[in-house]
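Most newcomers find our protein records easier to grasp once they have seen one. A learned vocabulary of local backbone shapes supplies the integers on the structure line. An example says more than a description, so a record of this kind follows:
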Amino acid sequence: MLSLETKFRTRMLSSTSDLLRINNFINLYCHLFLYLISLKVIVFLFFYILSSVVIFNNFALKKLFLLIKKIKKKKKKKNRGGGGGGGWGGGGRGGLGGGGWGGVGGGGVGGGGGGGGWGGYNNDN
């Protein structure tokens, strides 16, 4: 009777240790599996956030370049030269006319125009 009880206890202990061993094995692989999944999720989130930031930056840079182009187009004016300065007034009947100085033309992108010449001298004789 005693030997039977001893055998039973030994068998129970061995089965318990087997169960513990299996349990540890399962526990280890479950933790490893969960660790790998969490690592994959973290890596995925990292690359997802990085790619979304890059896409947003690309979009923002394109918008910025378009805005700069529009500003440059608005600032660019036609290539017009400035008007020439007015000359002396022409001679009237009987002598020189009393013409004043003409205004000087404003210089544009193409450079200012030439100054006006002297007016004609009109003699009545």
